[in-house]
Design a protein that fits this description.
The chain is about 0% helix and about 25% strand. The protein has about 90 residues and is an all-beta fold. The strands form 2 sheets. Strands 1-2 form a two-stranded antiparallel sheet. Strands 3-4 form a two-stranded antiparallel ribbon. Bound molecules: calcium ion (CA) (2 copies). One calcium ion binds next to loops. The site of one calcium ion has 5 residues, from loops.
Amino acid sequence: MTGSYTLTVATTDDATDEPDGSVTASLASGNGYTVGSAYSGTVAVLDDDVAALPVVSVAADAASVTEGGDASFTLTAHPLPASPLAVTVRWRRR
Ligand SMILES: [Ca+2]
Ligand SMILES: [Ca+2]
């Protein structure tokens, strides 16, 4: 290099919600120059994705039940919630 040089480091735009990252460039010693006191620089890489909300579905466990028996349903959440989810379920009997 002479005078100045621009180093560019590409970052990846993924679709994952994650903590912010960073790119750091650090000078190493070499022949013909002395490393200055500003020997590294860091650029924060800000995540721009939001957490995907789990999709909750309900399905009847059986199409019918004889009266007096229990009607049961299975609720599923996908993707798996990071912590237990409070889900509102309404049901009615006729
Ligand atoms: Ca992204
Ligand atoms: Ca991301």
